[in-house]
Model the fold of this input.
Amino acid sequence: MTTTATWPDPVVAFFREQMPRDVSGRWDHFFSSAYQMGAMALVALGQADKDSAGAVAKEHPKIPDILPRWDDICCAVLSLLHQRGEIEYRLQDGSRYERRLARGEVRWRPLNPPAIPAPNVRPAHNCGPAYIASARKHLLEALDLVEDIHWSANAELVFWRTAPHYWFKQLAHDPRYLTAFELCLTSLPEEEADQIAALVNVSDADVEEALGQHKEWLAEKRAQYGPKARLGGAPTPERTRHSLTFARESQIEWLFFRGWRLLDGWLSADDRKQALEIFHDPLAQSMRRDVIQRLHPDSDVAKFELARADKARPK
Done:
């Protein structure tokens, strides 16, 4: 994959201008995903120091000689554009996607809705049409995502991580994904393999420990607020096992967010220093599911995922 070397300056300008700032001048992420990724990007691009609630601007900012990963930066940029309503992904005919309503659900529409702007980026390389704010076109061109009025060849694999599901419905069957899956398995470091193996099952002892911790918490809060405080009852063992399995799944997911990339497999320690923790990455989530099903098909996490997929499948 080739990228232009001119992207850091416009990307830095974009994040510096569009990230929200508090009264002290700190870039505040408000614990919103797009802003959290933006804060990470500002730190990685030498503009700020990490802060618990965002990023604090450096007195003497300087773009580092070793840049953060281009694909991760693209994800952060696209996430912030989407957060700000400056990019809108469309269906192949250019219309807006409308989620199917659940039974009894109502969709409200304004009486005189504004005209929907026509897509100004045409489909290419399996990517659908989109509308982007005119002021952002140069930014996506600098990132080598847009060529003239079409998506570039480089854009496709970035959009595997950021675009809506209706653009890539058969992703799991793409030869490039299947090749990446095998690379993911063969490059899996022993440390990550051990962590995954330790997380995929929830034992009876784990459930008992969690129930005991909750019981102690209830006793502490009743002592603090009185015996009539409405704190809810103790969870059942079944519900506790479900919650623990969900948490384990999330922990495994973070291993992929931090250490795995499609074309590279598992990153080395040095390469991870250039990576951003792009969470809510559907590509990493898909790869994590497939790896668990291959390596630990009878595990609690694997069964949990299959049950959830079966529940979500249209009847």
In short: Strands lie at 27-28, 48-51, 54-57, 87-89, 130-132, 146-147, 150-151, 260-261, 265-266. The mean pLDDT is 93. The chain has twelve helices and nine strands. The radius of gyration is 22 Å.
